[in-house]
Specification:
The structure is a single chain. The chain is an alpha/beta fold and 249 residues long. It has one domain: 3-Layer(aba) Sandwich (Rossmann fold), CATH 3.40.50.300. 31% of the residues lie in helices and 25% in strands. It has a 6-stranded mixed sheet. Strand 6 and strand 7 form a beta hairpin. The longest helix is centred in the last third of the chain and has 18 residues. The protein is globular, with a radius of gyration of 18 Å.
Length: 249
C-alpha cells in the first residue's frame, strides 16, 4: 500500500495514482480492524472490537444489529464524523486517518451524503431550500443549483412540494427531502442511520425502496443501518454487527 504525501490518498493492490481515478478498482468502503470504546477501566463500553468489512461500488448494503450494538458508532466512523481508537477506514481510495480537519470536512461535503433518523431539516426553509443548502455551501451557480434541486425533488416524488416547509410535510415526505438533500452534491457514498425509524411500516418500506432506486439512478453506494427485517430484504447484502464485530456478510 502506497501513500501520497500528506496521507490523503492511498493506492491499494498496486494501483497507481498518476492521472488515474484513485478509487478505480477499489471497494467504495474498506474497514479494517476498527475499534472504538467509550469511557475507561471496568466501566468502559467497547462499541467496536475489530470490525472489518468492505462495501463494493454500487451496492446497497444494510447494517443490522440490536439496539446498542454500535451501528451508529460504526456509521460515524465510516463517515468521518468520529475517529477510531484503532483500525482504518478507507473511502473511495482515501484513508481517513491521513486527513486533517479541513480535508475531512471537504470529503464529507463533497463525497458523502448523510441521512438521519430525525430528518435534520431546517424548519424555516422550504423543501427546495433545504435540498439546496449543500449547493449553496459550495457556491454553486444559482441556475445550476435550481436545476439540481428540481431534479432531485422530482426523483424523490416531491416535485409539487418544493415550496412547503417541513411542518407542512408528512414524516415520509420529510425523509424524502432529507434523501434529496443528501444527494445534492452527487456523493459517491450515501450513509443512512435508521432512516425509517420514525416512520410507520408502510412508509418505511417506501423510503427503503426509494433508497434502492436512487442507488441505481444516481450511481451511488449506500450503507444503511436498520433493524427492520422487512427492509433487509431490499438490500443487496446484509452485514450484522454483534459484540463489536461484523459476524455475517
Amino acid at each position: 500500500m502506497a501513500e501520497r504525501s500528506g496521507g490523503t490518498q492511498v493506492a491499494v493492490d498496486g494501483a497507481g495514482t498518476d492521472g488515474e481515478d484513485p478509487g478505480a478498482g477499489h471497494p467504495m468502503v474498506a474497514v479494517t480492524d476498527l475499534h472504538r470504546s467509550y469511557g475507561s477501566g471496568p466501566a468502559a463500553v467497547h462499541a467496536l472490537a475489530g470490525a472489518t468489512f468492505e462495501v463494493r461500488r454500487g451496492e446497497l448494503v444494510a447494517l443490522k444489529g440490536r439496539s446498542g450494538a454500535g451501528k451508529t458508532t460504526l456509521l460515524n466512523l465510516v463517515g468521518g464524523l468520529d475517529g477510531p481508537d484503532r483500525g482504518r477506514v478507507v473511502i473511495d481510495g482515501t484513508a481517513l486517518d491521513g486527513l486533517g480537519a479541513e480535508e475531512l470536512l471537504e470529503l464529507r461535503r463533497d463525497r458523502i451524503g448523510f441521512v438521519f433518523q430525525n430528518f435534520g431539516l431546517i424548519p424555516i426553509l422550504t423543501a427546495a431550500e433545504n435540498v439546496g443548502v449543500p449547493l449553496r455551501l459550495r457556491r454553486t451557480d444559482p441556475r445550476e443549483r435550481d436545476e439540481r434541486v428540481a431534479l432531485l425533488l422530482a426523483l424523490v416524488g416531491l416535485a409539487g412540494h418544493a415550496d412547503q416547509r417541513p411542518t407542512e410535510l408528512s414524516g415520509g415526505q420529510q425523509q424524502r427531502v432529507a434523501i434529496a438533500r443528501a444527494l445534492a452534491n452527487r456523493p459517491s457514498l450515501l450513509i443512512a442511520d435508521e432512516p425509517t425509524g420514525q416512520l410507520d411500516a408502510a412508509t418505511g418500506l417506501t423510503i427503503m425502496e426509494l433508497l434502492r432506486s436512487v442507488v441505481r439512478s444516481e450511481g451511488v453506494t449506500a450503507l444503511v443501518a436498520t433493524h427492520d427485517p422487512q427492509l433487509l430484504d431490499l438490500a443487496d447484502r446484509v452485514l450484522e454487527l454483534r459484540d463489536g464485530r461484523i459476524t455475517a456478510q
